[in-house]
Amino acid sequence: MNNIIELKNINKYYKMKTLNLHALKSINIGIKQGDFLMIMGKSGSGKTTLMNILGFLDSFDNGKYIFNGKDVTGLNENEKSELRNEYIGFIFQQFHLIDSLTIGQNVELPLLYKGDIPVKERNLLVDKYLNLVGLLDKKNRKPSELSGGQQQRIAIARALINNPYVIFADEPTGALDSSTGTDIMELLTALNKENKTIIMVTHDEDLKKYANKVIHIKDGVIEKVE
Ligand SMILES: Nc1ncnc2c1ncn2[C@@H]1O[C@H](COP(=O)(O)OP(=O)(O)OP(=O)(O)O)[C@@H](O)[C@H]1O
Ligand SMILES: [Mg+2]
Predict the structure, then answer these.
(1) Which residues 6+ apart lie within 8 Å of 30 measured at CB?
(2) Labelling 39: which of 72, 196, 211, 217 has CA 20 to 30 A away?
(3) What is the Cα–Cα distance from 30 to 79, expressed in whole angstroms?
């Protein structure tokens, strides 16, 4: 099967007043549709930097990025945000839900960014994905009224609503106790079985078992691939 994502010789520098920090060094990665990839490494090793580049949230300095067969190196901000809306869902450690909105409105947000979807269709999709994560009954509640695990499920529903090719998760269980974290990993595994590509960052060696591929990164270099 073809790679959905290919990075070729990617380098990333953070340019600061007095120094340039070489955050990613000649990174080469191939990710296939349906992979469950984990990116592991110590704090400061470059995991989030790599994830942000893969998810079109940040740029890189040289190298080549092929996404879904298309060279996406050097796209402008508008083109990148279109790709994000169309193909990518994000899940974060701290959920990033908006507390002034209801659960239903939070899940609906990516559809509003996409535009041109009639309200009836939006409602059907919100209900479908809230149901998928088992929280349809919370639709009119506020995020702060839910547990951490429930909030992460809502964030997963929000990540799924655009039917993305790839889900990026940066420490999705990092703010949860271990049994709630296991529930979230099982939900991600179920999505992966339906051929969603999942790319997850974690510190937690115990979570390696959920992945079919693990990339270890150290000081901006891929040290080992399992
Ligand atoms: N916006 C930035 N400006 C300058 N340096 C940065 C910036 N973001 C990250 N860095 C540096 O780049 C390196 C990699 O950071 P990154 O956030 O990718 O690490 P990480 O592996 O995600 O760490 P953690 O496990 O703590 O989240 C670190 O040395 C960090 O200090
Ligand atoms: Mg990080």
Answers:
(1) 3, 5, 6
(2) 72
(3) 22
Name the pairing type of β-strands 213-218 and 221-225.
antiparallel
Sorted by where each starts, the structural domains of the chain and their CATH numbers stand as 3-225 (3.40.50.300)
The alpha carbon of 165 and the centre of ligand 2 are apart by a number of angstroms equal to 22
Beta strands in 72-196 (DSSP E): 88-92, 166-170
Q: What is the mean pLDDT of each run of 10 residues along the chain (226 residues)?
A: 91 93 97 96 94 94 95 92 92 93 97 91 96 95 95 94 94 90 92 94 93 97 95
**The Cα angle at residue 174 between residues 168 and 178, in degrees rounded to 5:** 120
What is the pLDDT, as a whole number, of residue 1? Answer: 63
Tokens representing residue 34 in the block:
């349906």
Give the Å distances, CA to CA, from 156 to 23, 86, 172, 224.
29, 16, 10, 29
In this structure, which residue's CA is closest to atom 17 in ligand 1?
48
What residue's CA is closest to ligand 1, atom 7? 14
